[in-house]
């Protein structure tokens, strides 16, 4: 969608955002985009959704002083804002008044400067020393004379027993570190530490041409590679007014659902592995190979796909693609019962998952936990239903929801969604129309001036792309909405009072992918 912002002054920002939340029911904070607007100053774009009507709006606020930029926090309105504001602070140096945790999120605590500012100049050299992390958080407020004052809040007391889960722990599914305070085996508090695989993808995109940026998307959530690139291609195509053929839309929809099968099968296998069930892990990996075979014959890749491009597809589908996808659907449908027989009904799984790690619908929305995590709590947040794109508005499928909000509900959502993916594919695979697989673009793609946001339903939730174009061949600002960051931000809420072994179950069913979080 093209963004037409509501613009608020800093002094009115807190009250106006509260009105949007309470009076207009914009209860879902989709994302916060920090941006250096140049001479205009440093500020943020807030994208909000009314979860009843699915109406979306955007808000723009610019800090008055570039050297001491500050904006009031909205973390008291949306819980997920706390970690999103930390990300903006880390990269732009904008202080959020009232946010109780103004620490860097991805970069070292001794990093000098704010790298997403347009005037940032990196210092030569780098440190091989350990990062001396502070044992306190910072909260900023304004004095009566308008100057900033900082208040320290201790992270730990002298009696706290603190352990690290990760970043090398296999059950964190990547280099995520969860600093955990325990009372015996009971979790009292979790502080997530991100950035161990941070690569500055969004910053690099500012120097790349639009086709060059596509190569980075598959390396974010590599199990939603198709959807990541789909979202980026779609936002550029919308901005340029590119009309795709039905053939392109059919193929993209089929490929997205194959990618969802790929991801959910790995989810099933990893849930089993985390709980020590090796047989189910082997079953999931066995059938994932069959899905990857179908994708590989067309894309040439198994993990990094590199298939979508601005204006369509890299190449047409393989001559055997339709036949092999139909074989895959017939093969995999009976396997779903096998998954239930070997694992879902297992008493160990049920004891480890049922009633464990409960996330309420209200908190799922407040943290922005989209995808299967939100739908397991009863939140209808499927982008394919609420904001249909490509062929999703023309096929029949069910949005899978549960109400328990526990590990078992999150697990069941994924298993049921695989059946729906097969259902979508079967409706399309015999009806792919003739036509061009690519709408030819100019050698140098220049996007008109403006700001857009487009999203797709990834394997873990909404993957969105914010684009600010100044009419050049490179984006002025490109921001990816990660699926996994809201999930990690909710872990403290989900796990407080649970046992330490439950952290493994919760992490498995939240299904985050670390490069998507870190970007």
Automatic annotation (TrEMBL):
Alphabetical keyword list: Cell membrane, Membrane, Multifunctional enzyme, NAD, Oxidoreductase, Quinone, Translocase, Transport
Pfam families, per database record: Complex1_30kDa (PF00329), Complex1_49kDa (PF00346)
Subcellular location: Cell inner membrane; Cell membrane
Bilayer topology annotation: Peripheral membrane protein
Keyword Oxidoreductase: yes
Domain NADH-quinone oxidoreductase subunit D as annotated: residue spans: 274-442, 445-519
GO terms assigned for molecular function: oxidoreductase activity
Catalysed reaction equations from the record: a quinone + NADH + 5 H(+)(in) = a quinol + NAD(+) + 4 H(+)(out)
Translocase is among the record's keywords: yes
Function comment: NDH-1 shuttles electrons from NADH, via FMN and iron-sulfur (Fe-S) centers, to quinones in the respiratory chain. The immediate electron acceptor for the enzyme in this species is believed to be a menaquinone. Couples the redox reaction to proton translocation (for every two electrons transferred, four hydrogen ions are translocated across the cytoplasmic membrane), and thus conserves the redox energy in a proton gradient.
Family membership: Belongs to the complex I 49 kDa subunit family. In the C-terminal section; belongs to the complex I 49 kDa subunit family.
Subunit structure: NDH-1 is composed of 13 different subunits. Subunits NuoB, CD, E, F, and G constitute the peripheral sector of the complex.
Name this protein carries in UniProt: NADH-quinone oxidoreductase subunit D
């Amino acid at each position: 969608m093209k963004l037409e912002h509501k613009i608020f002054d800093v002094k009115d920002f807190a009250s106006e955002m509260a009105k949007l939340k309470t009076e207009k029911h914009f209860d879902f904070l989709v994302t916060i985009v920090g941006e250096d607007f140049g001479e205009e100053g440093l500020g943020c774009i807030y994208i909000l959704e009314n979860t009843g009507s699915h109406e979306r709006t955007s808000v723009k606020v610019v800090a008055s002083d570039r050297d001491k930029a500050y904006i009031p926090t909205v973390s008291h309105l949306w819980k997920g804002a706390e970690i999103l504001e930390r990300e903006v602070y880390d990269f732009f140096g904008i202080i959020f008044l009232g946010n109780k945790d103004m620490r860097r999120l991805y970069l070292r605590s001794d990093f000098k400067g704010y790298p997403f500012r347009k005037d940032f100049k990196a210092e030569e050299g780098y440190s091989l020393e350990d990062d001396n992390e502070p044992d306190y958080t910072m909260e900023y407020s304004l004095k009566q004379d308008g100057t900033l004052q900082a208040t320290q809040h201790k992270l730990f007391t002298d009696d706290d027993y603190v352990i690290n889960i990760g970043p090398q722990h296999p059950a964190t599914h990547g280099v995520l570190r969860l600093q955990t305070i325990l009372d015996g085996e009971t979790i009292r508090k979790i502080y997530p530490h991100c950035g161990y695989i941070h690569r500055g993808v969004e910053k690099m995109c500012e120097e790349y041409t639009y086709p060059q940026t596509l190569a980075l998307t598959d390396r974010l959530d590599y199990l939603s590679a198709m959807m990541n690139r789909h979202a980026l291609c779609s936002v550029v195509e919308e901005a340029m007014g590119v009309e795709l053929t039905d053939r392109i839309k059919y193929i993209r929809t089929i490929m997205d659902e194959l990618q969802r099968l790929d991801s959910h099968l790995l989810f099933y296998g990893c849930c089993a592995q985390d709980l020590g069930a090796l047989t189910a892990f082997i079953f999931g990996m066995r059938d994932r190979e069959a899905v990857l075979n179908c994708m590989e014959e067309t894309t040439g890749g198994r993990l990094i796909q590199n298939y979508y491009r601005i204006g369509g597809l890299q190449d047409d589908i393989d001559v055997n693609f339709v036949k092999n996808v139909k074989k895959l659907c017939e093969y995999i449908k009976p396997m779903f019962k096998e998954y239930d027989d070997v694992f879902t009904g297992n008493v160990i799984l049920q004891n480890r998952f049922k009633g464990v790690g409960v996330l309420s619908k209200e908190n799922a929305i407040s943290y922005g936990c989209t995808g299967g995590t939100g739908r397991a709590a009863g939140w209808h947040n499927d982008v394919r239903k609420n904001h249909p794109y490509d062929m999703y508005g023309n096929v029949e499928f069910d949005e899978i929801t549960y109400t328990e909000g526990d590990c078992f509900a999150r697990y069941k959502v994924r298993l049921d969604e695989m059946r729906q993916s097969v259902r979508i594919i079967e409706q399309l695979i015999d009806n792919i129309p003739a036509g061009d697989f690519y709408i030819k673009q100019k050698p140098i793609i220049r996007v008109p001036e403006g700001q857009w946001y487009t999203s797709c339903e990834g394997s873990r939730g909404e993957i969105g792309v914010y684009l600010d174009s100044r009419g050049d061949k490179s984006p002025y600002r490109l921001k990816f909405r990660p699926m996994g960051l809201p999930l990690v931000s909710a872990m403290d809420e989900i796990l407080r009072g649970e046992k330490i072994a439950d952290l493994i179950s919760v992490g498995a069913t939240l299904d985050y992918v670390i490069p998507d979080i870190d970007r």
